[in-house]
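Protocol step 4 of 5: obtain the predicted structure for the target chain.
Materials: sequence only (see below). No template structures provided, no constraints applied. The aim of this step is simply to have a reference model before the mutagenesis design in step 5. Sequence pasted as it appears in the construct record:
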Amino acid sequence: MKKLISVAVLSILVCSFLVGCGWHLRSAGTAQVLGNIGQVFVSGDENTLLYRSVIKSLKFSNVGIADTSATAEIIITLINQRSKSRTATVSSSARISELQIIELVDVIISTGNGEVLLPKTTLRREKFFTYNEDNVSTNNEENKMLKREMIRKLAKNIIRRLNATIKMMDQNEPES
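Step 4 output (structure tokens):
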């Protein structure tokens, strides 16, 4: 019984410390700010994982998705999504030992009436992975998995940019 009380008191102290120092989860507050906007329209290739990830993140943040740009308050335009890979390191026997994969996308955030809130910005994610030339199929699977992970992180980065843009918009509005 005493051990249970000690654990409970310790838990309360740790939680109090974390709240008191201002610590919070990274995404805390995103849904609150994004919830203040109306409909968002995402323009881009609907068949890509990035497009679907951005839509999913917006829905997770309780943001309505507009069917057309005419009914949207905010428009996110995804342009020129591309992937690159290059040799990062070479072994002493002149064989590839590490690859670098890069995912890039250009993003523009604007209002429904055409005002550009975030001019064309290139977002980038990169990862390195050890290349094993004896097991090409494993390399391909790892490459695909890393690309999916990087694209999901790009989508989260787009939502963070949208959130920051909306916060700046709210701060610049004259108070009534």
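Step 4 remarks: The beta strands are 39-43, 64-65, 74-90, 96-111, 116-130. The chain has a mean pLDDT of 80.
Proceed to step 5.
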